[in-house]
Amino acid sequence: MSEDESEKNYRSGLPGFLGIIDTFISKLEAVILALGVLLMALNTVTNVIARFVFGNSIMFSGELNRILIIMITFAGVGYAARHGRHIRMSAIYDALPAGGRKVLMIFISLFTAAVMFFLCYYSIIYILDMQSRGRVLPALQLPIWIIYVWAPLGLFITGIQYLLTAVKNVTSRDVYLSTTTLDGYKDTETEV
What we know:
Layout: H1 3-8, H2 16-54, H3 61-82, H4 91-95, H5 98-133, H6 144-147, H7 150-171
Helix pairs in contact: 2-3, 3-7, 5-7
């Protein structure tokens, strides 16, 4: 099954209400990422055509891409956590027996969730500070704080994802990198 098909047919490995939340967040992330990338590509191509064909750029194109980059980045953090695609330094982790890896993965998941919630809290404070200053984007005339709303949202969703990973590891016999990704390495070598 291709990666696109597995995302479309995503089913959470978590029981009950947690599984419903996990599946909903997965679908929301997929829509945000897909729309963000498509809109950014359309905006960029349209701006290039406008600049070279008509001699004028679209004045809000750079601002729109800035908004979309922030949106894609913070939606992508949750996506990476959901699929176990985050950066891992696993030398110590890999040297441990399965029981030790499980305990360490639970600790890592809970610690990372706490860091994400901490960053979410401070990003909200930052947004409130930006709101109090009343600055706006020059071309779109949107308050600048609005474009940063994606940061706490993405950090909060990522924190939830890491909490769900900890729950999955507590309730399962196997060790999971995310709610659906088992610990282990895929064999990437093919025989000739």
